[in-house]
């Protein structure tokens, strides 16, 4: 029999909420892609835990304005500001950060979330998911960093939890989401952290019910792939954006700079790490590697012969 997961008691839950409130309450937050899906769920959780002001940067002007107005009506004050921004346009993101600074004075938390899945328009996918996320991350560092007058803060980069064996139909999307891990790992290095005081965390969500997921079978490079893609999706259990946002609040409380968190199948967040590349080398039975060093044009070149794999010589 599988051991049952222990349910937390009411007092433990109350303590957890209090601890999250300590981190979030009174903070100013910027969320990209906050007008729908995961970003909108993050927004609601920040409000629930007492954030001071929240700015949404999103390309969907209608939804962004509607959300800001709706929250103003229900709260009786302007808690949420919307700035119409295409994150793939660096100039627009720079302007949006300037406006946010003017509105909020300080930015404490940035959730770098805006992203698309559209393999048919893969140049746009790269522009939003990589250029857009890099722009947002750089500007977040610039505005929050301590060594140039900021107060430090938290940057959350939103990635995707995926098994590399299940990504055959999403080559470009997969590449963009892997890039975010590299970006986060670099920016969270103590080399930066000691100067900036900005904690950089990666949140990798598993399959989540948003319009991105619903539309995804129609956004593949070829229609022929659709049936296989849908079959792959059916292997996973889908979670709600609410659960991911709830998990993000816990991660803000316990996540250290450089940590990578997965939230999948509606469960509590767990931490993963990037393996040491030295441990990844493949070993074959009766493997032998012969290394020769030649000098060509005054430059030393190592020739590696791995006879068990190819029987060919290759340069390394
Ligand atoms: N849905 C999932 O299963 C899932 C899982 C893991 C990670 N993610 C990632 O989470 C993030 C949010 O995805 P989602 O599922 O909530 O998608 P979504 O489509 O529901 O929401 C994305 C939001 O980003 C906005 N947006 C799109 N392009 C933009 C641009 N150029 N500039 C500014 N805003 C833009 C959209 O208008 C929308 O409000 C993405 O980075 C996605 O890759 C999604």
Bound molecules: nicotinamide-adenine-dinucleotide
* Percent of residues in β-strands: 15-25%
Structural class by helix and strand composition = alpha/beta
CATH C-level name = Alpha Beta
> What is the CATH homology-level superfamily?
NAD(P)-binding Rossmann-like Domain
Largest sheet: 8 strands, mixed
Q: What percent of residues adopt helix (DSSP H or I)?
A: 40-55%
Give the beta-strand count. Answer: 11
Average pLDDT figure: 91
User: What name does the CATH topology carry?
Assistant: Rossmann fold
General shape: globular
Q: How many angstroms separate the termini?
A: 51 Å
Protein name: 15-hydroxyprostaglandin dehydrogenase [NAD+]
Pfam families: adh_short
Family: Belongs to the short-chain dehydrogenases/reductases (SDR) family.
InterPro entries: NAD(P)-bd_dom_sf, SDR_fam
Please tell me about this protein's structure:
By secondary structure, the chain is of the alpha/beta class. It has one domain (13-277): NAD(P)-binding Rossmann-like Domain (Rossmann fold, 3-Layer(aba) Sandwich), CATH 3.40.50. 42% of the residues lie in helices and 20% in strands. It is built from ten helices and eleven strands. It has an eight-stranded mixed beta sheet with strand order 3-2-1-4-5-6-7-8, with helices on both faces. Strands 9-10-11 form a three-stranded antiparallel beta sheet, with no helix packed on it. β2, α3 and β3 (80-84) form a beta-alpha-beta unit. α2 (37-48) crosses α10 and α5 (122-144) runs parallel beside α6. The chain is globular and about 75 Å long. The N and C termini lie far apart (51 Å). Residues 310-316 have low confidence and may be disordered. The chain binds nicotinamide-adenine-dinucleotide. Nicotinamide-adenine-dinucleotide binds at residues 32-33, 35-39, 58-60, 85-88, 113-116, 128, 132, 158, 160, 205, 207-208, 210-213.
